[in-house]
Amino acid sequence: MLPKAKLWLALTVAALTMLSTNLQAAWDLNMPQGVTQISRDTYDLHMQILWWCVAIGVVVFSVMIWSIVNHRKSKGAVPATFHESTKVEIVWTIIPFIILILMAVPATRVLTHAYDASESDLDIQITGYQWRWEYRYLRQNADEDEVSFFSNLSTSRDEINNTMPKQENYLLDVDNPLVIPINKKVRFLVTSNDVIHAWWVPDFAVKKDAIPGFINETWTIVEEPGVYRGQCAELCGIDHGFMPIVVHALPQDEYDAWYAGRQEQARAARAQANNVVTRDQAMATGEAIYNRTCVACHQAGGVGLAPAFPALAGSSVVNGDLTANIELVLHGVPGTAMASYARMLSPVELSGIVTYIRNSFGNSTGDLVQPADVNALLEAQ
Predict the structure, then answer these.
(1) Is 378's pLDDT higher than 90?
(2) What pLDDT does residue 125 have?
(3) Is residue 137 left, alpha or beta, with left meaning phi > 0 and alpha meaning psi from -120 to 50?
(4) Which of 5, 206, 269, 360 has the fewest other C-beta atoms within 10 Å?
(5) What is the pLDDT of residue 15?
(6) Which residues, including other chains, have CB under 8 Å from residue 259's CB and lie 6 or more apart?
(7) Residue after which a domain boundary falls, among 92, 114, 136
(8) Are the beta carbons of 125 and 146 closer than 8 angstroms?
(9) Three-class SS of residue 323?
């Protein structure tokens, strides 16, 4: 064989090997069995109904094929002359009815279990925003500090824009994952602040719509420590693909330590609301918030994406009245993509982002917003 032919043969074999490996890795057609009892019950029910449908299909098509082959015109088959048969109609009504009853019994058992969110050990409110999730741990008693935080996509814009290599778990990592204890019944109260979202974690067999003005409930008991990932499963706008879900399931002692740390952070954030920040601190905080939260719409350099997302550079709002600018960031603009950040960001972060946009992108108002200024407006609402 000629050297060139050998080279082409080697390249072809290598390409086919790579293709078969990739296809095999992607040949995951079935649903996952998951890490909870309800997910395994759901999987078993799915497989049971699937094989029943396969058996029914085999019987029905076998009879059809046999009838076609053995009653064809070339064999001299003569069409029957009867118009109807009461016995046949009774049989083909009773048999499907019995099959449906047999399917309904295990399905009802699984669904009843899946929808029973009573007697939970921990309640967490999940609120969907464009395009992030808020997790709020409902307090067991009034003396506790409330633990709540937003979970944002942590994949960098450089990866999204293909200016750097994509990391592991591309578009599936967040800055603040949801943390729950294992072997505890956790009830999720799911709602939305703006449009319809859907909170979906396949390994838990949990998928619940987040609808504005409604609270839907679901639950899980995770048996194994680990990191479990999901995504918003409802088309919710331009960044629908950028609001992943990450859940860390921890042993009880590790969860208790994490929760205590979060309570301490809540107390510290409340104390910082009256701190005085320097311009450098405010600008650094604001830049980090802008790159994490605002850059997708208003773009690097504050140039915006007209007409939906106005430019911040040279903006009459950004360069205008300071209080009006803060109010806009706090409460957003109803009917537009400009969300309300009053709950999403702390007073320190809010003061930083307003200071940053009023002194960046060619804007030079010289304003320095203090957390106390933001806090005063929040308390006045």
Answers:
(1) no
(2) 96
(3) beta
(4) 5
(5) 59
(6) 137, 147, 179
(7) 114
(8) no
(9) helix
Tokens of 41: 């019950």
| Domain count of the fold of the chain | 3
Provide the 8-state DSSP code for 254: H
> Do 189 and 280 sit in the same domain of this protein?
no
By CB neighbour count within 10 A (0-12 exposed, 13-18 middle, 19+ buried), where does 65 fall? exposed
Q: What predicted TM-score, i.e. pTM, was given to this entire model?
A: 0.76
Residues 146 and 171 both lie in one domain: yes
The whole-number average pLDDT for the span 130-154 is 86
R_g (Cα) of the chain, nearest Å: 29
Q: Which helix (H) or strand (E) holds 150?
A: strand 147-151
Sign of the C-alpha dihedral, residues 53, 59, 63, 69? positive
Q: What is the pLDDT of residues 274-323, one digit of tens each?
A: 788 899 999 999 999 998 888 878 888 889 888 778 899 998 999 999 99
The answer, yes or no, to whether residue 170 has pLDDT greater than 70, is yes
Q: How far is CA 6 from CA 2, 18, 284, in A?
A: 6, 18, 59
